[in-house]
Structure formats: structure tokens, C-alpha cells
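Sharing a chain and its predicted structure for anyone who wants a worked example. Both blocks are below, sequence first, C-alpha cells second.
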Amino acid sequence: MITVTRARWWHIEGIASLERDLFPGDPWTPEQFWQELSLDTRHYLVALEADDVVGYGGLFALAPDGDIQTVAVRPDHQGGGVATRVVSDLLDEADRRGCRHVMLEVRSDNARAIALYERFGFETISSRRRYYPDGGDALIMRRASAGGVSKS
């Protein structure tokens, strides 16, 4: 069973390990995650199976705007609803904090993630060529405040 809860300092080792596996070209360091968890404008979640980190996500929220900074799921748990739960909870927190708009960047070749974000009402508003360290392009997506957005 997967549980999604607020990330705490004791989750950082598992988050950083997954980060290195999923983003070997430019992973965030444990110190960066420590910094993120210390800021009032941040809200990080972790998806756990038993005590193992299988996913995580982070939100920067400074009303009226928010930014989903990262969403990651271990490959053997992708497609199982973990990202949907994490994104849903991050958007609930953005709404709770008064964010009228939430933005994010996603790889332009990540069709699964783009479809997920579109289900939550995100629309592509721009792109950034060669945004990622490997030269991949990013789409900039934006979502207006919830109000009945489907989460399925």
C-alpha cells in the first residue's frame, strides 16, 4: 500500500537516492532538499511503500502564484497512480495557500507526464528550447485555480 505524506528530514536520503537514479545528468543534492524542506514557501510530499520512497513532489507557493518544482516516481511504480496522488495533493495545498495559478516545466517528450498535467487542467503556454542538461526541451504549463478540475 502506498501512502502519501509530508516529506520530513528522515525522507531526504530516500528522495535523494531516487533523484540520482531518475535524473543522473543533474540531480538535486541532499543539501538542496534540506534547504527546500526548511522554507515556509515550500511543501514537499513523499510517497512511501512501507518505509521505501517510491515518489515525491514539491511545490513552491507564494500566493497568488505557485510552481510545482518536481514530481518523480520510481520506474516500477510509474503508471500506478502515485504521480496522480502527489500532484493532486500538491494542488490541494496550492489552493489552500491561496495560489490562483500554478505553473510547471515538463520535458516536451514526456507524454505520460503531459497527459497527467492536462487532466489536472494545465495548459501549455510556452516552451524552452534546450532547457534540460541533455539538450531536451521543456514545455511551460499553467493551471488556473481548481474549481471542479477532474482528478481522474
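Comments welcome. The chain has four helices and seven strands.
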